[in-house]
Amino acid sequence: MLEKLFYTETSWFFTLLRLVLGLVILPHGLQKLCGWFGGYGFSATLDFFKSEGIPYAIGFLVIVSESFGALGLILGLFTRISSLGIALTMIGAAIYVRKNGFFMNWFNQQAGEGFEYHILAIGIAVILMISGGGHLAIDSWIAHKVK
C-alpha cells in the first residue's frame, strides 16, 4: 500500500508540473499562514473564512494545503496527498468564492476574477495524483526504501 502511495513515474514532465504547481500555490499559502506577500496571516485568515461562512476546520485545511501541500509538491514529498489537498481547495474556491464567470480579470472590466485559474490548478493536481512527482521527488526515494 505504501509503495503505491509513494511510487512515481520517472518523467521530467511530471517534475515540471509538480514544481510549477507548488511554486504557484506556495505564495498563496504563505499569505494565509504567515501574512507574507500582502496576506493577513493565520488568525486573520481563519476569521475571514469564518465571516464567509467557512468553518475554522475547513479554513485550517485550506491553509495547510496551500502552504505545506505546496512545499510537499516542491520537494516531491507526499505528492499525491499534497495534490489532492490542492485540488480540493481549488474546487472549493471555484464553487464558493469565485462568482465572476470563467475568465480572469485581465483588464479590470468585471467585479472580480473568474475560475479558469482554478481549473488549470485542478488539472495539474489530478495529473500528479495519478502519476506521482517525477524525477527528483523524495517520494521515489521512499518508494525504493519501502520496496
From TrEMBL:
<feature type="transmembrane region" description="Helical">
    <location>
        <begin position="12"/>
        <end position="30"/>
    </location>
</feature>
<protein>
    <submittedName>
        <fullName>DoxX family protein</fullName>
    </submittedName>
</protein>
<dbReference type="InterPro" id="IPR032808">
    <property type="entry name" value="DoxX"/>
</dbReference>
<feature type="transmembrane region" description="Helical">
    <location>
        <begin position="54"/>
        <end position="74"/>
    </location>
</feature>
<feature type="transmembrane region" description="Helical">
    <location>
        <begin position="117"/>
        <end position="138"/>
    </location>
</feature>
<dbReference type="GO" id="GO:0005886">
    <property type="term" value="C:plasma membrane"/>
</dbReference>
<feature type="transmembrane region" description="Helical">
    <location>
        <begin position="81"/>
        <end position="97"/>
    </location>
</feature>
<keyword id="KW-0812">Transmembrane</keyword>
<comment type="similarity">
    <text>Belongs to the DoxX family.</text>
</comment>
<keyword id="KW-0472">Membrane</keyword>
<dbReference type="InterPro" id="IPR051907">
    <property type="entry name" value="DoxX-like_oxidoreductase"/>
</dbReference>
<keyword id="KW-1133">Transmembrane helix</keyword>
<keyword id="KW-1003">Cell membrane</keyword>
<dbReference type="Pfam" id="PF07681">
    <property type="entry name" value="DoxX"/>
</dbReference>
